[in-house]
Amino acid sequence: MAVKNEFSWSKTRDEIFRECLRKYYFHYYASWGGWDPAAAPRTRQLYVLKNLQTRARWAGDHVHRAIRAVLPTLRGGGSAPAAEAVAQQMLAAMRLDFRDSQQRRYRQYPKKVCGLFEHEYELNVADEQWKQTADHAANGLRVFLASDLFRNIRALPPDAWLEVEELASFTLSGIKVYVQLDFAHRAGPDIAIYAWKMGGANAAPNDLPLAGCILYAVARWPVTPEQVAAVEFDLASGAAAPRRLDAAGLEEMKDTLRDSADEMSFLLEDPAANRPQPEEVFELAEDEAACRRCNFLKACPRWA
Ligand code: SF4
Protein backbone atom coordinates (compact mmCIF):
# COMPACT_ATOMS: atom_id res chain seq x y z
CA MET A 1 0.00 0.00 0.00
CA ALA A 2 1.33 3.45 -0.94
CA VAL A 3 2.36 5.67 1.98
CA LYS A 4 0.20 8.79 2.17
CA ASN A 5 1.82 12.20 2.36
CA GLU A 6 -0.10 13.56 5.33
CA PHE A 7 0.18 17.13 6.48
CA SER A 8 1.94 17.79 9.77
CA TRP A 9 3.49 20.89 11.28
CA SER A 10 6.97 21.33 12.75
CA LYS A 11 9.33 24.20 13.48
CA THR A 12 11.58 23.04 10.63
CA ARG A 13 8.65 23.05 8.23
CA ASP A 14 7.73 26.58 9.30
CA GLU A 15 11.35 27.73 8.84
CA ILE A 16 11.64 26.24 5.35
CA PHE A 17 8.24 27.70 4.41
CA ARG A 18 9.41 31.18 5.41
CA GLU A 19 12.80 30.81 3.78
CA CYS A 20 11.71 29.76 0.27
CA LEU A 21 8.42 28.39 -1.00
CA ARG A 22 10.09 26.43 -3.80
CA LYS A 23 12.41 24.78 -1.32
CA TYR A 24 9.36 23.95 0.77
CA TYR A 25 7.70 22.38 -2.27
CA PHE A 26 10.80 20.30 -3.09
CA HIS A 27 11.24 19.18 0.52
CA TYR A 28 7.67 18.26 1.42
CA TYR A 29 6.04 17.38 -1.90
CA ALA A 30 8.18 16.92 -5.02
CA SER A 31 10.65 14.56 -3.30
CA TRP A 32 7.84 12.39 -1.91
CA GLY A 33 8.28 8.75 -2.94
CA GLY A 34 11.93 9.30 -3.92
CA TRP A 35 13.01 6.65 -1.42
CA ASP A 36 12.07 4.15 -4.14
CA PRO A 37 15.09 3.73 -6.45
CA ALA A 38 12.58 3.21 -9.27
CA ALA A 39 10.91 6.61 -8.69
CA ALA A 40 10.93 9.17 -11.51
CA PRO A 41 14.50 10.56 -11.87
CA ARG A 42 13.60 14.08 -10.70
CA THR A 43 11.71 12.76 -7.66
CA ARG A 44 14.68 10.56 -6.82
CA GLN A 45 17.15 13.42 -7.29
CA LEU A 46 15.12 15.71 -5.02
CA TYR A 47 14.91 12.99 -2.39
CA VAL A 48 18.69 12.45 -2.45
CA LEU A 49 19.25 16.22 -2.14
CA LYS A 50 16.66 16.56 0.62
CA ASN A 51 18.60 14.10 2.78
CA LEU A 52 21.93 15.94 2.55
CA GLN A 53 23.32 17.43 5.73
CA THR A 54 25.68 20.35 6.11
CA ARG A 55 28.72 19.48 8.19
CA ALA A 56 27.46 21.61 11.09
CA ARG A 57 24.15 19.76 11.19
CA TRP A 58 25.94 16.45 10.81
CA ALA A 59 28.12 17.21 13.84
CA GLY A 60 25.06 18.11 15.91
CA ASP A 61 23.30 14.97 14.81
CA HIS A 62 26.19 12.79 15.97
CA VAL A 63 26.29 14.45 19.39
CA HIS A 64 22.55 13.92 19.77
CA ARG A 65 22.88 10.27 18.83
CA ALA A 66 25.77 9.72 21.23
CA ILE A 67 23.81 11.27 24.13
CA ARG A 68 20.73 9.26 23.18
CA ALA A 69 22.80 6.08 23.38
CA VAL A 70 24.36 6.97 26.76
CA LEU A 71 21.32 8.19 28.71
CA PRO A 72 19.32 4.95 28.92
CA THR A 73 22.34 3.15 30.41
CA LEU A 74 22.16 5.48 33.43
CA ARG A 75 18.55 4.82 34.36
CA GLY A 76 18.31 2.85 37.56
CA GLY A 77 21.81 3.74 38.72
CA GLY A 78 23.91 2.44 35.81
CA SER A 79 27.46 3.72 35.90
CA ALA A 80 28.48 6.45 33.49
CA PRO A 81 30.70 5.38 30.60
CA ALA A 82 34.14 6.96 30.26
CA ALA A 83 33.64 10.26 28.44
CA GLU A 84 36.70 9.79 26.26
CA ALA A 85 35.55 6.35 25.13
CA VAL A 86 32.15 7.77 24.12
CA ALA A 87 33.81 10.66 22.27
CA GLN A 88 36.18 8.32 20.42
CA GLN A 89 33.29 6.05 19.45
CA MET A 90 31.41 9.02 18.04
CA LEU A 91 34.47 10.25 16.13
CA ALA A 92 34.93 6.78 14.63
CA ALA A 93 31.31 6.84 13.42
CA MET A 94 31.89 10.31 11.93
CA ARG A 95 34.97 9.06 10.07
CA LEU A 96 32.90 6.23 8.57
CA ASP A 97 30.20 8.70 7.52
CA PHE A 98 32.79 10.97 5.98
CA ARG A 99 34.25 8.16 3.89
CA ASP A 100 30.80 7.01 2.74
CA SER A 101 29.82 10.53 1.80
CA GLN A 102 33.09 11.17 -0.03
CA GLN A 103 32.37 8.07 -2.11
CA ARG A 104 28.83 9.38 -2.78
CA ARG A 105 27.28 6.16 -1.46
CA TYR A 106 24.28 8.20 -0.29
CA ARG A 107 23.16 8.56 -3.90
CA GLN A 108 22.30 4.88 -3.80
CA TYR A 109 21.10 4.80 -0.17
CA PRO A 110 19.99 8.38 0.61
CA LYS A 111 18.30 7.62 3.92
CA LYS A 112 20.71 5.03 5.30
CA VAL A 113 24.03 6.54 4.32
CA CYS A 114 25.23 9.98 5.32
CA GLY A 115 25.44 12.49 2.47
CA LEU A 116 27.23 15.75 3.13
CA PHE A 117 26.24 18.94 1.32
CA GLU A 118 29.91 19.84 0.98
CA HIS A 119 30.62 16.64 -0.99
CA GLU A 120 27.55 16.80 -3.22
CA TYR A 121 28.36 20.37 -4.18
CA GLU A 122 32.13 19.78 -4.26
CA LEU A 123 32.85 22.68 -1.93
CA ASN A 124 36.44 23.40 -1.17
CA VAL A 125 36.63 22.53 2.52
CA ALA A 126 40.15 22.28 3.94
CA ASP A 127 41.11 19.29 6.10
CA GLU A 128 41.55 21.70 8.99
CA GLN A 129 37.91 22.78 8.68
CA TRP A 130 36.73 19.16 8.74
CA LYS A 131 38.86 18.62 11.81
CA GLN A 132 37.28 21.67 13.47
CA THR A 133 33.84 20.20 12.80
CA ALA A 134 34.82 16.91 14.44
CA ASP A 135 36.48 18.73 17.37
CA HIS A 136 33.36 20.84 17.84
CA ALA A 137 31.23 17.69 18.05
CA ALA A 138 33.62 15.96 20.46
CA ASN A 139 33.78 19.06 22.65
CA GLY A 140 30.00 19.31 22.76
CA LEU A 141 29.79 15.73 23.91
CA ARG A 142 32.51 16.22 26.53
CA VAL A 143 30.77 19.37 27.81
CA PHE A 144 27.56 17.42 28.24
CA LEU A 145 29.19 14.44 29.97
CA ALA A 146 31.05 16.74 32.38
CA SER A 147 28.03 18.96 33.13
CA ASP A 148 26.04 19.37 36.33
CA LEU A 149 23.01 18.44 34.27
CA PHE A 150 24.54 15.06 33.43
CA ARG A 151 25.34 14.50 37.11
CA ASN A 152 21.77 15.42 38.03
CA ILE A 153 20.34 13.04 35.44
CA ARG A 154 22.47 10.23 36.85
CA ALA A 155 21.13 10.96 40.33
CA LEU A 156 17.47 10.87 39.27
CA PRO A 157 15.37 8.07 40.73
CA PRO A 158 14.19 5.73 37.94
CA ASP A 159 10.53 6.78 38.36
CA ALA A 160 11.42 10.42 37.67
CA TRP A 161 12.46 9.55 34.10
CA LEU A 162 9.85 10.24 31.46
CA GLU A 163 9.78 8.42 28.19
CA VAL A 164 10.36 10.62 25.19
CA GLU A 165 9.90 9.32 21.70
CA GLU A 166 12.38 10.33 19.05
CA LEU A 167 9.61 11.82 16.98
CA ALA A 168 7.32 13.28 19.60
CA SER A 169 3.98 14.61 18.39
CA PHE A 170 0.63 15.89 19.57
CA THR A 171 -2.51 17.20 17.89
CA LEU A 172 -3.61 20.83 17.97
CA SER A 173 -6.96 21.75 16.37
CA GLY A 174 -6.68 18.69 14.14
CA ILE A 175 -3.09 19.49 13.09
CA LYS A 176 -0.41 16.92 13.85
CA VAL A 177 2.53 18.77 15.37
CA TYR A 178 6.03 17.28 15.67
CA VAL A 179 8.39 18.57 18.32
CA GLN A 180 12.03 18.01 19.11
CA LEU A 181 12.64 16.99 22.71
CA ASP A 182 15.76 15.23 23.83
CA PHE A 183 15.02 14.29 27.43
CA ALA A 184 12.34 14.81 30.07
CA HIS A 185 12.05 14.12 33.77
CA ARG A 186 9.81 14.87 36.72
CA ALA A 187 10.99 17.46 39.23
CA GLY A 188 8.51 17.12 42.10
CA PRO A 189 5.11 18.07 40.66
CA ASP A 190 6.78 19.78 37.67
CA ILE A 191 8.33 18.50 34.45
CA ALA A 192 11.60 19.56 32.86
CA ILE A 193 12.02 19.01 29.13
CA TYR A 194 15.43 19.38 27.50
CA ALA A 195 16.70 20.13 24.02
CA TRP A 196 20.43 19.90 23.29
CA LYS A 197 21.72 22.79 21.16
CA MET A 198 25.05 22.99 19.37
CA GLY A 199 26.34 26.48 20.06
CA GLY A 200 22.93 28.06 19.92
CA ALA A 201 23.80 30.60 22.61
CA ASN A 202 23.64 33.50 20.17
CA ALA A 203 20.37 32.43 18.61
CA ALA A 204 17.40 34.56 19.59
CA PRO A 205 15.04 32.61 21.85
CA ASN A 206 12.08 31.41 19.85
CA ASP A 207 8.80 30.86 21.68
CA LEU A 208 7.36 28.54 19.05
CA PRO A 209 9.49 25.43 19.80
CA LEU A 210 9.14 26.24 23.49
CA ALA A 211 5.36 26.28 23.15
CA GLY A 212 5.53 23.03 21.17
CA CYS A 213 7.39 21.31 24.02
CA ILE A 214 4.95 22.60 26.62
CA LEU A 215 1.90 21.60 24.57
CA TYR A 216 3.38 18.15 24.07
CA ALA A 217 4.00 17.77 27.82
CA VAL A 218 0.46 18.87 28.68
CA ALA A 219 -0.98 16.41 26.15
CA ARG A 220 1.23 13.56 27.33
CA TRP A 221 1.41 13.92 31.11
CA PRO A 222 -1.06 15.22 33.73
CA VAL A 223 0.45 18.70 34.20
CA THR A 224 -0.56 22.31 33.61
CA PRO A 225 1.49 24.57 31.27
CA GLU A 226 2.85 26.44 34.30
CA GLN A 227 4.36 23.20 35.60
CA VAL A 228 6.54 22.64 32.55
CA ALA A 229 10.02 24.11 32.11
CA ALA A 230 11.59 23.80 28.67
CA VAL A 231 15.36 23.90 28.95
CA GLU A 232 17.80 24.57 26.13
CA PHE A 233 21.17 23.12 27.02
CA ASP A 234 24.00 24.70 25.04
CA LEU A 235 26.55 22.00 24.23
CA ALA A 236 29.23 24.58 23.44
CA SER A 237 29.19 26.35 26.79
CA GLY A 238 27.31 24.01 29.13
CA ALA A 239 24.80 26.78 29.91
CA ALA A 240 21.21 25.74 30.55
CA ALA A 241 18.40 28.20 29.91
CA PRO A 242 15.06 27.14 31.44
CA ARG A 243 12.02 28.93 30.10
CA ARG A 244 8.32 28.80 30.85
CA LEU A 245 5.20 30.20 29.23
CA ASP A 246 2.11 31.27 31.10
CA ALA A 247 -1.37 30.33 29.86
CA ALA A 248 -1.76 33.62 27.92
CA GLY A 249 1.62 33.21 26.21
CA LEU A 250 0.76 29.65 25.33
CA GLU A 251 -2.58 30.69 23.76
CA GLU A 252 -0.74 33.26 21.67
CA MET A 253 1.70 30.60 20.48
CA LYS A 254 -1.17 28.24 19.64
CA ASP A 255 -2.60 30.98 17.40
CA THR A 256 0.80 31.51 15.75
CA LEU A 257 1.12 27.80 15.08
CA ARG A 258 -2.42 27.52 13.67
CA ASP A 259 -1.84 30.61 11.47
CA SER A 260 1.37 29.08 10.14
CA ALA A 261 -0.43 25.84 9.24
CA ASP A 262 -3.22 27.88 7.62
CA GLU A 263 -0.76 29.79 5.45
CA MET A 264 0.71 26.48 4.32
CA SER A 265 -2.72 25.18 3.40
CA PHE A 266 -3.33 28.16 1.04
CA LEU A 267 -0.78 26.59 -1.30
CA LEU A 268 -2.64 23.31 -1.48
CA GLU A 269 -4.97 22.44 -4.30
CA ASP A 270 -6.72 19.94 -2.06
CA PRO A 271 -5.98 20.52 1.65
CA ALA A 272 -7.82 17.37 2.75
CA ALA A 273 -5.57 15.24 0.54
CA ASN A 274 -2.50 17.44 1.19
CA ARG A 275 -2.17 17.82 -2.59
CA PRO A 276 -0.09 20.86 -3.60
CA GLN A 277 -0.74 23.37 -6.35
CA PRO A 278 1.62 23.20 -9.37
CA GLU A 279 5.33 23.83 -8.77
CA GLU A 280 5.31 27.33 -10.35
CA VAL A 281 2.94 28.56 -7.62
CA PHE A 282 5.72 28.03 -5.07
CA GLU A 283 7.84 31.13 -5.57
CA LEU A 284 11.63 31.23 -5.49
CA ALA A 285 13.20 32.99 -2.51
CA GLU A 286 13.47 36.72 -3.14
CA ASP A 287 16.78 36.86 -1.33
CA GLU A 288 19.37 34.78 -3.17
CA ALA A 289 21.38 34.52 0.02
CA ALA A 290 18.94 31.73 0.98
CA CYS A 291 20.23 29.69 -1.97
CA ARG A 292 23.80 29.44 -0.76
CA ARG A 293 23.04 26.65 1.68
CA CYS A 294 20.01 25.19 -0.07
CA ASN A 295 20.15 21.43 -0.64
CA PHE A 296 18.17 21.82 -3.88
CA LEU A 297 20.53 24.24 -5.65
CA LYS A 298 21.28 21.87 -8.52
CA ALA A 299 17.59 21.07 -9.08
CA CYS A 300 16.29 24.62 -8.81
CA PRO A 301 15.25 26.43 -12.01
CA ARG A 302 16.99 29.59 -10.77
CA TRP A 303 20.39 27.89 -11.05
CA ALA A 304 19.84 24.95 -13.40
S1 SF4 B 1 18.07 27.39 -4.66
FE1 SF4 B 1 17.19 29.25 -3.76
S2 SF4 B 1 15.34 29.67 -4.91
FE2 SF4 B 1 15.94 27.56 -5.35
S3 SF4 B 1 14.81 26.30 -3.89
FE3 SF4 B 1 16.76 26.74 -2.96
S4 SF4 B 1 16.47 28.61 -1.72
FE4 SF4 B 1 14.75 28.42 -3.15
Topology:
Elements: H1 11-19, H2 21-30, H3 41-50, H4 55-74, H5 83-102, H6 117-120, H7 127-145, H8 148-155, E1 161-162, E2 168-172, E3 175-179, E4 183-187, E5 190-197, H9 207-220, E6 228-234, E7 240-243, H10 247-265, E8 268-270, E9 275-276
Parallel strand pairs: 5-6
Antiparallel strand pairs: 1-4, 2-3, 4-5, 6-7, 8-9
Helix pairs in contact: 1-2, 4-5, 4-7, 5-7, 9-10
Bound molecules: iron/sulfur cluster.
What does this structure look like?
The structure is a single chain. The mean pLDDT is 93. The relative contact order is 0.15. The chain is an alpha+beta fold and 304 residues long. α4 runs parallel beside α7 and α5 runs antiparallel to α7. It is globular. It has a five-stranded mixed beta sheet, covered by helices on one side. The protein folds into two domains: 154 residues, no CATH class; 89 residues. A hairpin with a 2-residue loop joins β2 and β3. The protein is built from ten helices and nine strands. Iron/sulfur cluster binds next to α2.
Spatially, the strands of the biggest sheet line up as 1-4-5-6-7
What's the number of domains?
2
Number of strands: 9
The backbone outline, from C-alpha atoms, is: globular
Q: Any low-confidence stretches, pLDDT <50, length ≥5?
A: none
Order of helices and strands: HHHHHHHHEEEEEHEEHEE
Over the alpha carbons, how many angstroms does the gyration radius reach? Answer: 20 Å
Total of DSSP H or I helical runs spanning 4+ residues: 10
Percent of residues in β-strands: 5-15%
Bound molecules: iron/sulfur cluster
Distance between the termini: 35 Å
The helix content is 40-55%
Q: How would you state the average pLDDT, rounded?
A: 93
Q: What structural category arises from helix and sheet content?
A: alpha+beta
